[in-house]
Amino acid sequence: MELFSLFGEYFRHQPVEKLTALLNHFLPEVTSNNQQARVGNALALGSMPRFLLTVSWPKVIQQLCTCALITDKTLQWAESRKNALTALSLVCTTVGIAPSSPGGVDQVTLAGIFRTFIDGFEDYTVDSRGDIEAIVRESAIDPTIPHIEQLEELRSIIPPPPLGISTEKECFDLWMKVMRLDTYRKVVITGLVSSIGSLTESLVKSSSASSKLTIERF
Prior knowledge:
218 residues; mainly alpha; TBCD; TBCD_C
């Protein structure tokens, strides 16, 4: 919020050339070879006001989508992917969605953003620490972008953040309800299968119990 206020106060009346130069300072850092550079600059882009983002919002979205991708080199960089998804949601909310918001994000670009969120939702990367992608999936759960399929049904199941989930059982009880929705059934099942094969004993037990109970109900 402080960064947002700074941009609004000092750059609103600057010429396009200066605004472009400012954006070009942040954009390369979002796909940097340094994770911390990605983490901070992604959030910076998400905090920018509309007059600055509209100078080149397609490039901003492209860079954030790239930051959210998993590659061999960035496999362990869960925090940067989390911040990229958070920033994408903020940028779309600030710029708006065309045609309801003139000059806003077009439908083709929006489809690519949805694909990025879905990829984040399906990410179950684990290492010796366990399920490091949980924070990425949480960011993919709560975007404020409009036109989400079965949005009202999701809102009736998933409470607004903070979710207040403290145990694996509470988490899986929630996802069992989401699995009833046709749009999300496949990705929830994918997550369950991954969790059942997890390195964490409590996660395995909770996911297995929830899966068994759900199967019995069907």
